[in-house]
Specification:
Elements: H1 6-9, H2 16-37, H3 45-67, E1 71-76, E2 79-86, E3 89-92, E4 101-102, E5 108-113, E6 116-118, H4 124-127, H5 131-137, E7 146-148, E8 157-162, E9 169-174, E10 181-183
Antiparallel strand pairs: 1-2, 1-7, 2-3, 2-4, 5-6, 5-8, 8-9, 9-10
Amino acid sequence: MKRIPQSATAYAGFTLLELLVVVVIIGIVSSFAVLSTGLTGRDKPLGKEAQRLLALMQMAGEEAVLKSEELGLIVSNDGYHFLSYQENAWQPLEDDLFRERGLPDDLTLDLVLEGRPIVLDDPSLTDSKTDSDMDDDKDKPKPPQILFLSSGEVSPFALTLSEHPGTDQLVIKSVGDGSFTLSDGKEPAQ
């Protein structure tokens, strides 16, 4: 009986287990690479502020329905704050959650209400008033641009947060039904 040399019976190549280990290692390394580069951009100040504002808007909508009161949001060049409609006038909310918030210096806001761009902090809105009118309105807050109604409806709007004009931007939108979306602003306008 002839013996076959052992080297002739050995198979050349890798086992299935070895291939699976390599695939798992590649998957782990690539996930670390994605996490370290911040592929989604949500870890930047722009993403954090957009997430915060979106969460506050969702909570304001829920609060308006639960408490059966009308809430509003005033957006300005340097920040935003929430109001409540009480005693036939808009009043600042005393709640710490809905306190006035400023924006980081490198972020800007642009607001479009019902398809129309809104000029934030427009000085022409106050220049035409007389001194006596301004004294009367000093304690009276401006009416909000975005309304959160007790029926669950929200003013249709698109609020764009950007780092610099023409650079990264995130857009918070509502079509008026009380739902909100956050997108990168690159899809075509509808």
